[in-house]
C-alpha cells in the first residue's frame, strides 16, 4: 500500500528531510513538475524510482508553477493547480517527498538578477515564439538542482527542447547530475499527455490528435528522407481542421540543422507546435532517416 509522501514547503524543511539520505550516501532522485500531474508525470516518478530505489534513495517530486517561464500573454493565472490530487499521484507512485514551495520561497528577492541564459538553442522553435521562456525554465531548474542536489533528475521527452537545454546546462555548468529523458506517454489514440489537454473541449480534443498523426506519418516515411517525411506530416495537417500550426521541423537530435547529405540511418527529431482552439500544444518523435531500400530497375 502506498504511503503519503512528506510535504515540504520551505528550503529548510527540504534540507532537513534529505539530510539522512545525504549522510548515508543514498542517491536522491528528482522529478521537477509544475503540478496538475497525470500519467506522464507518474511515468517520470517511476523512472526516478527505478534509478535510485535499489540503493534505498528517496524520490523527490517538486511542484511549482514557475512565473519566470510564462510570458505576459500566457496562461500563468489559469494554469491548473491541483495539489491534493497531485499528492495522491505521488503517493500511488511511491514518491517519498514533495517539495511545493511558494513563489516567495523560490525567488526570495523577487525576480532574480542573475539568471541562466539558454544560448543558441534557446532562440529557436519554442524560444523564438516564447522569448524568455527558457531563461525562466533553466533558472528554476538550476535552483531546484541546487536545493535538492539530486544524483538523478528525470524529465519528459515531450518537452524535447527543454530536455535538450537542461542537458546542455548541466554539461556546461558542471552541475554533476544525471539527466534522464523519459519517453512521452500517450492516450490510446496517440495524443501526448499534457496538463493543458484539460483546456480542450470534446471537438478540440479530437482535432488535437492530428499532431501525433502527423508525426507518425513522418516517422513511417522517414526511410525515404527528411523531405518526404516532412511532406507526409504536412499532408496529414492539411486534412486536419482546427489546427493552427506554429512550426513543424526536422532537426538533428541536438536540435541543429541536418547535414546537406544525410547518410542512411541518420537519427533525427521531428517537432511540432500548434494551437487547437485557445490551447497551444507541442509534440515530437524520433526519426531514422534514409533507410528505405532503393528500387532497382527491372530487367
**How many structurally independent domains?**
2
**Helix content class:** 25-40%
The rough form would be described as: globular
Give the end-to-end Cα distance, rounded to a whole number of Å: 68 Å
Question: pLDDT under 50 segments (min length 5)?
Answer: 295-299
Q: Give a quick account of the main beta sheet: strands, pairing sense, barrel closure.
A: 6 strands, parallel
* Residue fraction in strands: 15-25%
SSE string: EHEHEHEHHHEHEHHEEE
Strand neighbour order, sheet with most strands: 1-4-3-2-5-6
Number of helices: 9
CATH topology of the largest domain: Rossmann fold
For CATH, the homologous superfamily of the largest domain is named as HUPs
Computed Rg: 20 Å
Mean pLDDT: 95
Q: Which structural category fits the helices and strands?
A: alpha/beta
CATH architecture of the largest domain: 3-Layer(aba) Sandwich
CATH class of the largest domain: Alpha Beta
| Quaternary form | single chain
Amino acid at each position: 500500500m502506498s504511503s503519503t509522501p512528506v510535504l515540504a514547503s520551505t528550503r529548510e524543511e527540504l534540507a532537513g528531510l534529505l539530510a539522512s539520505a545525504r549522510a548515508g550516501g543514498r542517491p536522491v532522485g528528482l522529478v521537477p513538475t509544475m503540478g496538475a500531474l497525470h500519467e506522464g508525470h507518474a511515468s517520470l516518478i517511476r523512472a526516478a524510482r527505478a534509478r535510485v530505489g535499489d540503493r534505498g534513495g528517496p524520490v523527490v517530486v517538486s511542484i511549482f508553477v514557475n512565473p519566470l517561464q510564462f510570458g505576459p500573454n500566457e496562461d500563468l493565472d489559469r494554469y491548473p493547480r491541483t495539489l491534493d490530487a497531485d499528492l495522491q499521484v505521488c503517493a500511488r507512485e511511491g514518491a517519498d517527498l514533495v517539495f511545493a514551495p511558494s513563489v516567495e520561497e523560490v525567488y526570495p528577492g523577487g525576480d532574480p538578477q542573475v539568471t541562466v541564459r539558454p544560448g543558441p538553442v534557446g532562440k529557436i522553435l519554442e524560444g523564438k515564439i516564447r522569448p524568455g521562456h527558457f531563461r525562466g525554465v533553466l533558472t528554476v531548474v538550476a535552483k531546484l538542482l541546487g536545493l535538492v542536489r539530486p544524483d538523478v533528475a528525470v524529465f519528459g521527452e515531450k518537452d524535447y527542447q527543454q530536455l535538450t537545454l537542461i542537458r546542455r546546462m548541466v554539461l556546461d555548468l558542471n552541475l554533476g547530475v544525471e539527466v534522464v529523458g523519459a519517453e512521452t506517454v500517450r492516450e490510446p489514440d496517440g495524443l501526448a499527455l499534457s496538463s493543458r489537454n484539460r483546456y480542450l473541449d470534446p471537438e478540440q480534443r479530437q482535432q488535437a490528435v492530428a499532431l501525433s498523426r502527423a508525426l507518425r506519418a513522418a516517422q513511417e516515411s522517414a526511410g525515404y528522407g527528411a523531405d518526404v517525411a516532412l511532406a507526409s506530416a504536412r499532408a496529414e495537417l492539411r486534412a486536419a481542421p482546427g489546427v493552427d500550426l506554429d512550426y513543424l521541423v526536422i532537426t538533428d537530435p541536438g536540435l541543429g540543422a541536418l547535414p546537406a547529405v544525410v547518410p542512411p540511418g541518420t537519427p533525427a527529431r521531428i517537432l511540432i507546435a500548434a494551437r487547437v482552439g485557445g490551447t497551444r500544444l507541442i509534440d515530437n518523435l524520433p526519426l531514422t532517416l534514409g533507410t528505405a531500400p532503393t528500387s532497382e530497375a527491372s530487367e
